[in-house]
Amino acid sequence: MQHHQARKRFGQNFLHDEGVIHQIVRAIDPQPTDKLIEIGPGMSALTQPLTQAVDQLTVIEIDRDLVAFLERKYRPEQLQIISADVLTVDFSQFGSGLRIVGNLPYNISSPLLFHLMQYADQVLDQHFMLQKEVIDRMVAQPGDAAYGRLSVMLQSRYRMVKLFDVGPEAFDPAPKVTSAVVRMRPLKADRLQAKDEAVFAQVVAKAFSQRRKMLRRVLADWAPQINWEAVGIDPTARAEQVSLAQYIALSDALTPLLAAP
Q1: What InterPro entries does the annotation carry (predicted)?
Q2: Is 245 found in the same domain as 169?
Q3: Which of 184, 195, 203, 206 is geometrically suited to a Cys-Cys bond with 251, CB 3.0 to 4.6 A?
């Protein structure tokens, strides 16, 4: 199988630029005993150098033709292949100390990042190539145009660093957008965190649901319960002006009202 027709429904764009591949592998810095999991190995551009660096690599691939290709190319002791939609995979089965990597399909990037959040306690780090626009949102700070729900939710759980951009010409077929690579390291147990994660997620989603409006209007249903001064937020502020710490304070203040009984 020298060439595989990229499938739009799987968001496939295959990396082929050797320089970019080496740059990503250097950033990951795989060690022989690492518990490395690659999401979406595709034509194995990253898989090949990773199998040479670690004792065993696990890959998750949805495309059955690519699964068959990988089964022909690698011995089972080199590569454990899981044929599945990654959004349905329970990562708790792999134990702890996981290092997760991948050139992620653009069409599932946000749902996948949220899916992986629930396993963050088992993860050492994640290195992903994504659409540059998504990574800009992930690392954005309050006041930035890109700052939004994704920024707040992921920054509550990870320290994230954008590493470098990757141009469309590095892929086949070439996407219409620039990509980038991000490093995500889960924050420790002593991180600042909300009393109730479900309430925190609900409050952040509601705040950004009408991001051009003042928070006191967007959160009008809950506003009578909020002591704005105590949580350190100006009620005339908009969602993108509020920091992670302020969102945590706000959700903690609303937890008695919103938490499940």
Answers
A1: KsgA/Erm, rRNA_Ade_diMease-like_C, rRNA_Ade_Mease_Trfase_CS, rRNA_Ade_methylase_Trfase_N, rRNA_adenine_dimethylase, SAM-dependent_MTases_sf
A2: no
A3: 203
Number of domains comprising the chain: 2
Q: Is 154 annotated as a binding residue?
A: no
| Listed residues 186, 210, 232: the one ending a domain | 186
112 annotated ligand binder: no
User: Is 103 labeled as ligand-binding?
Assistant: yes
pLDDT in tens, 108-159: 899 999 999 999 999 999 999 999 999 999 999 999 999 999 999 999 999 9
Are 182 and 201 within one domain? Answer: no
Using DSSP bridges, classify how beta strands 171-172 and 98-103 pair: parallel, antiparallel or unpaired: unpaired
Indicate whether 59 and 136 sit together in one domain.
yes
Give buried/exposed letters for 96-117 (b at 16+ CB in 10 A, else e): eebbbbbbbbbebbbebbebbb
Give tens-digit pLDDT for 159-187: 999 999 999 998 877 878 899 999 999 99
Residue 15 annotated as binding site: yes
pLDDT at 62 over 90: yes
Domain that holds residue 152: 8-186
**Closest to 166 measured CA to CA, from 138, 126, 134:** 134
Residue 38 counted as an annotated binding residue: no
